[in-house]
Amino acid sequence: MRSLVAGFLIVVIGVAGLAWVTDGFRAVLLETARRLSINAEHPEFPHVLVEDQLGIRLSTADLRGRTIVATFMYSRCATLCTVTGTDIAWLQHSMPAASQSQSSPTVQWLSISFDERDDRAALQDYAERHRARWPDWLVVRIPDAADRRRFLRALGVVAIPDGFGGFTHNAALYLVGPDGRVRSVFDIDAAPAVLAALTAKP
Amino acid sequence: MKRLAGAAAIWIILALPYNRSLLEAKLVTHQFLQLGGLALAGYLLGSVLRQRCDSIVEPYNYRGVPGLLLTVFALLIWLLPRSLDASLLDSGWEIAKFVTVPLLIGLPLAFSWPHVTVIGRGFVMANFAAMLVTMGVLYRVAPQRLCTNYLIEAQQSFGAYAMAAGVSLAIGCVYYVLAVSRAD
User: Fold this and answer.
1) Quick check: A153 and A170 in contact, CB under 8 A?
2) pLDDT per residue over B169-182, tens digit each?
3) What is the 3 state secondary structure string of A125-190?
4) pTM over the 0.80 mark
């Protein structure tokens, strides 16, 4: 009888533990958990000093008041980052003409490099390859190493060396509202969903 | 006493920062050597404690079933890619790993295994072997990265090792039943 109670208790606690670790059986992967948490808690887009493709320094806090579509990349990347660049180009062209013709564009496109080796020339090169038009589309790096780590950590971006001089990283599109909070995270192949979220805005 | 010293030695060796990053650099060594070693340390500790206080625990651990359940649930949690991944990014998760893997996986196993019936042992072993093979196949064929901290090549190689471990365990069990235990 005592063993039955003990066994029953262990099952109850075990299932509760599993539920807790998996966010209610929704996330087996850390990447899923990260997106669930961002989409539910809408953390603040971290304030950090960046330098854009023209070498102009600004804070991400300066971008407040505009909707930001942000991605992470490193300029040498030949795979995922090219896709995220293409995503932004596609989104930019697909946005209704009204929002583009205004004197101040409502959407700020932002490509953020996490590679310390990326200098201004590398950013410029990336910007040219993707036809990123300044200042609508800023290609930036985070000059300070501590800032960079803090920023990536806050958004759950993990980049690991791929053994060939490049990185493997969890690419995604981040939609940040004018209030400076991350509204949601999208897969890189979900650009149409980003467009829907952008145009649904009143 | 020897087993107690062994348990402490294994735990300390695994906890040294150099060894931690060495074993955590690869998914295979992270799961098999680090998790396996931590569970072994807990098992050794449990086998010493069992000699002293099994009479207190046994009434709550009929045929070792409740203890085995504890081992299984704790193992399930630590086999999730999410938990392993988090232990690499978050020191809270890392500490939890070094505490709960010995105390909730290895230790209850040591308290329970001697009480488990032959059929029960066969059931556990067969399921563990099948789980390792299934997990190995999943890791090999998954098209996406399961851990943000490991490359896809690392998870595919882990899958191969897990399949090999499961098959070896199954062969070992068959050999034990047909050759060793039959000869007794």
Assistant:
1) no
2) 999 999 998 888 77
3) HHHHHCCCCCCCEEEEECCCHHHHHHHHHHHCCCEEECCCCCEEECCCEEEECCCCEEEEEECCCC
4) yes
State whether residue A159 is helix, strand or coil.
Answer: strand
- For the stretch B92-111, pLDDT in tens is 999 999 999 999 999 999 99
Domain ranges of chain B: 1-116, 117-184
In the 8-state DSSP scheme, what is residue B1? -
Q: Which residues of A touch B60 (CB under 8 A)?
A: 2-3, 5-6
ipTM over 0.90: no
Cβ-nearest to B151 among A14, A22, A162:
A162
**CATH architecture of residue range(s) A43-199:** 3-Layer(aba) Sandwich (3.40)
Minimal CA separation from A1 to chain B, in Å: 8
Q: Tokens 């308290």 map to which residue?
A: B111
